Amino acid sequence: MKNQLLLYFQAFSIWFKSLIRESANNIISIIFIGFLYLALWHFPQTVDLLLILNQTETFLLEVPLYFSLLSISAFIIWNIPKYFYYHNYKDISIRNLIGFIPNQHYKFQDRSESASYSYTTRIHMRKTLPRILGILLLAISALSILNAMELFGLENTYTKFLDPTSMLLLVIFLLLLLSEPRLYTLLKNFLNKIANTTIVFFCISIGLMILIISLGTLNTQAEKDLGKLFLANCALTLLFFSLSFNSYKFLKNFPKKLFYGTILVSGFLILISFFIFNFYPKWATGVNPLSIMVLSLLSLFMICFILILVGKKIRLPLLSLITILCIFSSRFFTDNSDHYQLEIKKTTVDRASLDTYIYHWLKSRKDDILNTDNKFPIIMVSSEGGGSRAGLWSFLTHSYLYEKSEGAYFDRNLLSLTGASGGSVGNAMFFAEARNASISNRKADFKIQSDIENANLSYKASIIYKDNYLSAALLSLLGRDLFKEVTSLFNFKNRGQLLEDQWIRAHGQFFSDEKGNLILSKEFLSFYKGVISKNSKTSEAKIPPLLLINTTHTQTGNYNIISPVRYAHLRSLEGMNDFIDTVQSSYPNGSIDLSTAMRINASFPFVTPVGEVRKKDGMNKTTSDQYADAGYYDNIGGRVSKGIEEVLIEVLRDSFPELIEKVKIKHVLITNSEERKITKTSSQLTAPLTTLQNVRYGHTREIMERLGDDYIVELKPTEIIPSTDLEDSVSKRKKEEKIKPVLPLGRYLSKIAIRSMEARLDTIKSDLDLILK
Known about the structure:
The chain is an alpha/beta fold. The protein folds into two domains: 22-105 and 117-326, no CATH class; 377-674 and 688-722 and 733-772, Cytosolic phospholipase A2 catalytic domain, CATH 3.40.1090. Strands 4-3-2-11-12 form a five-stranded parallel beta sheet, with helices on both faces. α4 runs parallel beside α14 and α24 packs across α26. The N and C termini lie far apart (86 Å).
């Protein structure tokens, strides 16, 4: 018994060493799979995209493209490592690469039954590990859909009985069993006993393909269809499993040159597409972000393949050398690069102090306040972050209140707009047009008059947020910006500037100034030009609301406010740094564009780069201040609103005591519905990380409670009818035909999700009306 156990341990040791040794030959595949796993399981913006794959109007194009890229990735992972063996790469040249059959190493294998277990395991591992990794890639993709449904609390048959993490571990365990030669032989002999195995193999393959296609045609864009998407991805995984482990049957009737040539050509075509997209990133906006992500990762994989193959031909570890060189060069260029520097603009606007501004804001409305029958509402808005859904929800809320009050909401009652990330972007998009209209002495129009293409949408904000704001950023992150980071060659717009351009273009479809200029590209303080002069006199027009855009200073973690007023002397906002004051200490009369302010407020980790402002210290040494997403510190901007309220109360008490009883301060909180379950007790090992993960959410809720819950405008998924047929009334349709779309966190919204958000706006109109009373 003891000897038997020892033999088992020896066999396991041999198997494990073979696994590690062969993993080194598949290292780029393992890294590729690791990145895909992190993106699809742990990165919020891409996890959410899995849930809206079935919502898009071009479902029959986007899902097949995504599945095709996954399939190509799996086939490349399976077959690329064959090119790295000596008996293959020694005969490869540029001329014969396409169509070369990389099976030469099989000719020199000892197939005798007397071969040692160590040798048999090594050879078997060489054959099976690439197949296993290809299957694992597709399994991760399939189970990530299940994981995303679980994260969003979407229950169906699959989520009730299957735990995604446990299933992934089980899949890995079962696949590793196939890498053990004796177990594999037992399973193979068992299956070979079945009559007509070749016919069964082809029938199963055809059946799986029919299943994948049929599941796609049954899509109704409802949440329940996510189960079908999961099932289709599982079928794709099984189809690849069947093909890869029965390749000898498949390739018996299929030209091998064509098979390997097709795989390489597919990989090189994807690489060429990647280069083209990087030269013309605007084209990437027409492709689903998930497909762009897989395409980009696969292109980096192909670059690594080329470097490894060339390195083996010239007998140099080329990939390792270039990787080390890139690490050192990126560190060197980071300190000297101006790639992420914000563009500083000149401003002619002098900022008044906050208390002075509020004084004149009240003074310009004094008669209105005194003549109001009921209490005059003074509105301060705080908008929660949350990607495009938060931006659109904020924009929709403001649009409704503006239209309902015929402009009085902005011109009469609104004192301040603040927020974080996406919510603040929505604030800025609304403010830009409302202020532009006010300057032009006209009423802004935020509703769609007539648009056949967008017949089911009511607001211009919805069309602006239909654009794909994520694909170009993902492409640039893994492409041109990565190239710039390690080489510092050429000059082009970084992914943050590309995002600004997209916002400006989309907003400019509907809104521009009298001269036709796009208003998001205007200098931030220009919206307050002539409001308060140097001698603190106001213009005849009413003072506009304060647009306060927040950001977080990367090096210190301090909160910064991009503000049209000065506030450093006020105790209520003590400790919050003045961004423009900091900029002007190095650049006199310096400022930034409104779009740039929006971007550094909404710098989602990695997807959007932190903005940099170069400065010189007292020793004449050049450094850069870096500014990131406001949501790191306060994901709703509530602390700013609370400070504004305290200053308002002081000004009322000191200068307008007669107005105190005539006004009602209203904190409007534009939020996302997010019910988070209390996590189970953490171990001492994980507790610190759990705390860091939850502290932002807890801090935001704490601030919201301080502002009160009287005027919370909460976004919730709302049922809609998916059909675009407007002739049938809602009452005639069955309840089962309604769907409640998922609202993703990222910068990519489907039309179905947008319609759900407009439907939510309709359901809370009575609550919104109370804000104006």
